[in-house]
Structures are given as C-alpha cells and as structure tokens.
Amino acid sequence: MSTLAEIFKAETNNHGKSMLIEQPTSILGKIFKRGLFRKDPDEHAVYLTFDDGPIPIVTPWVLDLLDKYDIKATFFVVGDNVKKYPDIFEQVVKRGHKIGNHTFNHVRGLKMRSADYTTNVDKCNTLFKTNLFRPPHGVLRPWEMDYLAESYQIVFWDVVTRDYSKRINADRVFKIVKKYTRNGSIIVFHDSLRSRDRLYNSLARSIEWLISQGYEFRTL
Predict the structure, then answer these.
(1) N or C: which end of the chain has fewer CB within 10 A?
(2) What is the pLDDT of residue 129?
(3) Which residues of the chain are under the pLDDT cut of 50?
(4) What is the DSSP letter of 111?
(5) How far is CA 18 from CA 159, 180, 201, in A?
(6) CA–CA distance from 218 to each of 40, 52, 118 (Å)?
(7) Has this prediction a pTM greater than 0.85?
(8) Nearest-angstrom CA–CA distance, 29 and 67
(9) pLDDT, tens digit, for every residue of 162-182?
C-alpha cells in the first residue's frame, strides 16, 4: 500500500496542491476508504452541508436563506453549541434539515488520545441522535475511523468552500463552488463567526448558480 506521502506527491503532480484542499476526494478517498466523499456521480444533485454551528446570528441567517430557496441541508453541529443554544438547534430540526455529529468540542482526532476523541464524539450524540459524523478538519486516526464507522456514516466532502479562510474573499469562495462542483458533490460551508463575512457574501450567489445549472438539492 502506498504511504500518505506517496499518494500526496502523486496527486499533487496530477492535480495541483490547491485542488487537494478544495476537492480532496482523490487523495483522502484512498486513505479513508470507509468515508463518504461524494454521492452518486450519475445524478445531477448536490448536498449542501454546514459545519461548526449552531450559533446566534449566523445559523438563523443561513436557515432563513435556505427557506427562501426552499432548500434542505445537513448541519454538522458541535455538541457544546447545541447545549449553549438549544433554541437555535431546535430551529434547524424544525425546519426540516438533517443533523450530523461534529464532536462535542470541535476536537481534532490527531491532537488527543483516541479513547478521549471517540468519547467526545459519543458525548455529542447524547444530546441528539444521528448516524452521521464529520471529523473536524477532516482528520482522524485509522483506529478512530474503524471504531466510529461501526455507529456512524463518516462524512467528508467533495468540495470545501474555504469560507473559513481569511486568506480569501467571498468572490474566491463563489469561484470554488463554480469550479469544483459536480454531480453528487457534498459541499461544505460553515455557519460560524470565523466564516460569517465570506458566507454572507457567497452563499446566495452559490445557491443561485447551482440552481441555474439545474442541480437538485438533497440532504445526506
């Protein structure tokens, strides 16, 4: 089996480093074989997902915008935020969106003991029940992957908009959506304070472009 470094080098040569950030399916799919990166490539549909909420101001704004376009999405929520803002979490559920687990404290699988990491994931799931899990930052150890895959569908992404990055602006976020979206794409935005300005100025444009391309919006 190829090492991570060998896979990364090969894919960088083929596609360029930027693509590995924005559309990492080809490389990460070889590493995390039990993960979901993209849905059916033969169906003209996309899957909007939002990470890191729920929080005041940003999550309600996202919900209102999705209502405007009659779109349902999947929210990968942080347990501590659910505990702090239960009313906002309930709004996400009541408006018909799917819920996924994003750990209780938004922890990284490589930054702590595996037993503590999986306990943090399971702690989040005591607040609500879901079979969907997305690892923060898209990283976790093989043992963590194997353990969690027994109870959850591990969801990664086909397109990450990078709305969290201060190095790019909303126009760049929109261009990422246009450049990398394809049939079955699981697209990641963030309903977080860090992403707020770029989200506010790119999400509606992205949705309208996806509609103009005839994509159907589905939940995971």
Answers:
(1) N
(2) 96
(3) 1-18
(4) S
(5) 12, 11, 22
(6) 12, 20, 28
(7) yes
(8) 33
(9) 999 999 999 999 999 999 999
C-alpha to C-alpha distance for 76 and 51, rounded to whole angstroms? 5
Distances (CA, A) of 24 to 29, 38, 77, 147, 186: 8, 11, 22, 23, 11
Check whether the bond before 54 is cis (ω within 30° of 0).
Answer: yes
d(CA 101, CA 121): 7
Residue 163: Cβ within 10 Å count: 30
**H/E element holding 144?**
helix 142-148
The structure tokens 């707020």 sit at 196
Single out the residue of 145, 137, 76 nearest to residue 114, CA to CA. 145
Q: Could you tell me the maximum CA-CA distance found in the chain, to the nearest angstrom?
A: 48
Strands 216-217 and 159-160: unpaired
Give dist(CA 120, CA 116) in Å, integer: 6
CA distance 28 to 141: 13
Tokens of 129: 């029940």
Q: How far apart are CA 14 and CA 35, in angstroms?
A: 22
65 Cβ contact list (under 8 Å, min separation 6): 203, 204, 207
In one-letter notation, the amino acid at residue 202 is: S
Which ranges of 32-75 would DSSP assign to H, the alpha helix? 58-68
